[in-house]
Amino acid sequence: MRYDSVLQAIGNTPLIRLDRICGTRISAPVYGKMESMNPGQSAKDRAALYMIEQAERKGRIQAGATLIEATSGNTGFSIAMIAAIKGYKCILTLTDKAGPEKQALLKALGAKIVLCPKDAAPEDPESYYSRAEELAGTIPNSFYLRQNWNLDNSGAHYHSTGPEIWKDTEGKVTHYVCCAGTGGTLSGTARYLKEMNPDIQVIGVDAYGSVLKKYWQTGVFDADEIFSWKVEGLGKTIIPDNVAFDLIDEFIKVGDRAAALRVRELAQREGLLLGYSSGAALEAVFSIRKQLTPEDVVVVLFPDHGSKYLGKVFNDGWMQEQGYLKPNGEPATYSVKH
Ligand code: PMP
Fold first, then answer.
1. Model pLDDT for residues 233-243, shown as the tens digit of each residue
2. Where does ligand 1 bind, in terms of residues with CB under 6 Å?
3. Side-chain half-sphere of 161: how many Cα atoms within 13 Å?
4. What is the Cα–Cα distance from 72 to 53, expressed in whole angstroms?
């Protein structure tokens, strides 16, 4: 492969079979879609590139523009990478839930960072959404990508992630398991796959403390569902336009502890260093294992790489502080059941 810039290296990520973890415990073959292998180490490379290039096509971005986004980190990294190539400036608002590694990565690519309190309600002027709006309103020649509401986010996955999974499973995929944050990765991919085969089961993954599953069940936004959780990128406290609720056949909530233990298992047993939400996605596969047969083919999407989480889930001290590990390294007060 030879590319003109890093942008051409985005997408075409492999599917990797997870037989060491799933082989004896799940009857269907399970493949991980390795979005960590994008050049920016996450699925957000696809969404950011598509949103920016659609904005260019629509004349919304002029030379030297400032790109603005509210992001848990990954979208910011992708925007900063693309801004570097295309000569744009980049300002990112993020919550203080994003760890120091994520912040350092963004700064390394030349992005300016505005840190906002993680527990501020979206309408609070201090929230990372409000701060991004404010910056977009005051900086001339700026473009706020709005990944939660910009449907080019899911469009990216409709045009790339979905077709790749269809082609690489030779149309045999029966279950697609994917985290929901903005919903872009889940919805765009699911829309393509269901167009190819409406019987494909789409399993969304949500966090306890997020409003998405309850909204999917009831159509009602329930603020009482909200409390803080640890898995970055997973779940929401708002309802983004990019979550296509009608495409989701099952929605599974996964807790911080189960996700942490699973992602460590992925590293230790499959040799795959992945982000915290990848552990949540794999845990959701275990939740549906009883409905799976050897004829099924499961694809679980792994949103990002584990290098950004060395201070958290891959740090034994952090795991012990959360009560997830005993000092001897064994899982505390809980064992992975499956
Ligand atoms: N996991 C991680 C680590 C993420 O950064 C994101 C994106 N915020 C997601 C999951 C969810 O992806 P999406 O926004 O496409 O729903």
1. 999 999 999 99
2. 42, 72, 74, 179-186, 232-234, 275, 277, 303-304
3. 35
4. 21
